[in-house]
Amino acid sequence: AQLTSGQANDLVTSLTIHADDGDGVFEDGIDSLVATLPGLSLTSGVQTVTFSDADPLVQVAPETSQTYFVVVDLASDASSQTPGSFQVVHLTESSSTAEDRDNDLPLRLEFFADTTTGVVQTLAVGVDSDSDGLSNEDEVDIHGTDPGNPDTDGDGLNDGPEVNTHGSDPLDTDTDDDGLDDAVEVLTTVTDPADPDHDGDGFCDGPDTGGGACTPGDNCPAVSNGTQTNSDAFPAGDSCQCGDVTNDGVIDATDVLRAREHVVNRTPSGPFVADRCNVVGPADAGATDCTVEDLYVLERAAAAAAVTLGDVCDAYLGP
């Protein structure tokens, strides 16, 4: 929607235009000031800027080009205004005019598409508008993330935890290029989203190579297992698969808790790999068959008590 003059002046205290010195980068105090508008007066959303006649800074020789920067200074309370965003568009197609310097005759300008800044969002400094754990200015100035979107890359992990806790890239859904999204590594496989080989056994946590760092497809990404031997010998041996629903390398009370939450139809309170919960069968029941009987066996395994029922878990990825 087009801004009114009042809305524009609530957001912007001044608009200035500067002539580029030739390096293509705006430099305040270096690029020459061409025009200043201390207040805006829009007509149907358009602000007209008239340059001084015969100003050498706005004279352009035939078949040459000149870059100009449009700079707006925001009001101190711009972030609290409604609307709180705007675009600056140079209407080159229909609104720009020029004239011959010597004869004051109108010139026909070569066609050039409108140029726009995109949406400028006014945000308060020192505030975390999207509540993701990163301040607005850090998102814009340091991380390049969207201060209005808590999960810029849409991978299921908010930008703040990616930066501050997991060491992953909030602009990349799979930081370590191992074929597992960052959220899957944090919430399901419990591996490091910034390390393609979490357990350091030479096999990548997921089905990709991590940019050539390791061999794809660790059958047990939480426990070093360089031979990739099937470790589904429940409840003895490496228990990183069958029964180890939290994928931390052991079967303990936490696995029992997660399985119990699942059985009573609660959302598990932490990492939960459902297809490791079906420890007693039937073998073809699929990942959703995590029942009271499975829970009983897990409780005994966690307590180091005798378990007489055989397991039917499949290996995680490997043989």
- Poorly predicted parts: 314-319
Q: What oligomeric state is this? A: single chain
Note the gap between the termini: 60 Å
**Sequence of secondary-structure elements:** HEEEEEEEHHHHH
Helicity, as a percent range: 10-25%
How many distinct beta strands?
7
- pLDDT average, as an integer? 86
Structural class: alpha+beta
What's the Cα radius of gyration? 31 Å
Beta content = 5-15%
Outline the biggest β-sheet. Answer: 3 strands, antiparallel
Taken from the alpha-carbon principal axes, the silhouette is elongated
As laid out across the biggest beta sheet, the strand order is: 2-1-3
Number of helices: 6
Explain what you see.
The protein is α+β, with helices and mostly antiparallel strands and 319 residues long. 17% of the residues lie in helices and 9% in strands. It contains six helices and seven strands. It has helices spanning 5-11, 136-143, 159-166, 182-189, 253-263, 292-302; strands at 12-19, 32-37, 68-74, 85-86, 89-90, 115-116, 120-121. The strands form three sheets. The protein has a three-stranded antiparallel sheet. The protein has a two-stranded antiparallel ribbon with strand order 4-7. A two-stranded antiparallel sheet has the order 5-6. The longest helix is centred in the last third of the chain and has 11 residues, at 253-263. Residues 314-319 have low confidence and may be disordered.
